[in-house]
Amino acid sequence: MKKLFYLLVITFSCSSFGQNLIPNYEIGCFVDYNKKIINGYYDFEYEPKTSLNVSYQASENFTKGYYFDNNGLKVNGLLKYSQSDRELKFKINEKDVEKSIRASESKGYIIGIDTFSVVKNVIVIGVFGDKLSGKSEFAENIENIGGKQFYKFIAEAANRSSYAKYIVKQSEASDFETFQSNKGKFKKLAADIFGSDPILKSDIENGKYDEEDIPSMIKIFKYRKLYGRDQKIFYNSSWDETDNHDEGAYYAKIESVQDSIFHLSYFFKNDIKIYEGDFTSFYPHKKKGVFVFYYPNGKIRKQINYINNKPKNVIEYFINGGIHRRYFYLEEDKIMYTQVNNDQGVSIFGSKGSMGKETFNDVITGKDVTYEFKDQQVKNVYYNDVNGDKVYQLCEKNAKPDDFKDLQKLINDKLKYPTESVQKYNHGYALMKLIVEPSGLVSEVELVKGVDMFCDVAINEFLSQFKNQIIWKPGKVDGVNVRQEIILPIDFSIIDTSSYKNHYYNFNPWFFQNMMMQQNMMRAPMGRY
Hints:
- Keywords: Signal.
- By secondary structure, the protein is of the alpha+beta class.
- The chain folds into three domains: 2-56 and 320-495, no CATH class; 67-178, no CATH class; 181-231, no CATH class.
- The protein has nine helices and 35 strands.
- The strands form eight sheets. A ten-stranded antiparallel sheet has the order 7-6-5-4-8-9-12-13-14-15.
- A hairpin with a 2-residue loop joins strand 23 (323-331) and strand 24.
- Helix 1 crosses helix 7 and helix 2 runs antiparallel to helix 3 (198-205).
- The longest helix has 15 residues, at 214-228.
């Protein structure tokens, strides 16, 4: 059975009619559980309002890794950092008794893809405010820029909330220095570290930044240097920034820098262009102006205009270059269409310009999909299956489970985060397709967008027992039960305090805020910052 699921994952990059596709990107036209339309491609702005969740809680789990003792001896085992006492917890195996390792007893440790060093001169938050720690501390290595090594230190305050402090070591011979909350001390150290960048220096002197902005300042400092050297930014398959070019699945080129605006173009590792646009910040990413998305053949697929970091106006194109749809966001979840054309460039809207019907071929799945519009909004979406039966993707009253919590409980009981994926820090959304019959039973299940090989195998094994577990309320059109295709997003998330390199969370204000909330609830960091 395992071999079968691995085969499913390996052949996942081919469509049902034989064409080679880019895995987890060219997925076909769908409508997800939240009524969000996916027009053939899985794009970075996808952010489902409701999703199922498979999470790995770093604060509650030991993770494979190793530490170095004071003699430099590598010790393998299971590790977990405790924010409360700022010590490393270690076990040789699950049955072993836990022991504590102080920073003074170690030269550092590694968990998954992240390295933690021993630092000194750390400013911690005491009962009466900032104070100098009198001992060595563990801190995560987050960046090395021109010999300047930056660290992130995490601990628990007296009120049990988590906080972060950023530390720098300017050279091997220099001391560790902590960026402080005191404005005068912060400005002095920040100007010393980032002063070689004229724009950063000016912004520091003008009071634009404070202690909480250090991650953004590091990114800007790094990216300007990369731009000057015409170097790329590499990302792994989960869109986390990586210095290991061999594990890069994507890369970005900094095309231009004007003051604080960076124009970046993003590519697959085989140089196929994905999209480009302007950013004014990188922690989180803040988008400005028009972003252009491309078909794999290089033609423009979509343009999104961002105002105040939110999408406002969108133009979608056919692969022949003609305009397919224009629409704007009236509210976060409400889209109004101002233009819809067929592939001959003819408007499908009637004389009132607000209703009509179009049928187009989904070149990825091979299906002819029909959209029905009324009052400038999509009302119904459907296609005919191989037997000629109509299957709705969106209808007047969508199919729903009796209780969404039952679905999440089933996920909690049956679908576990693979250890191999946690070790590699692979995360992201999977998209699960199911067909809900008029009876409310699920007849078909399929994974249409995965996370990595190990997660995909786990999902496929879960899907094999999914059909008979949950009864749905079927979709309805004109009061009649209909057959409907449902796309359920599953969020595979590793919950820790590490978000510095995380493209996935930093790209999206909602994700970023959620990560910050999670950090305040956390008790242990484990990877990415």
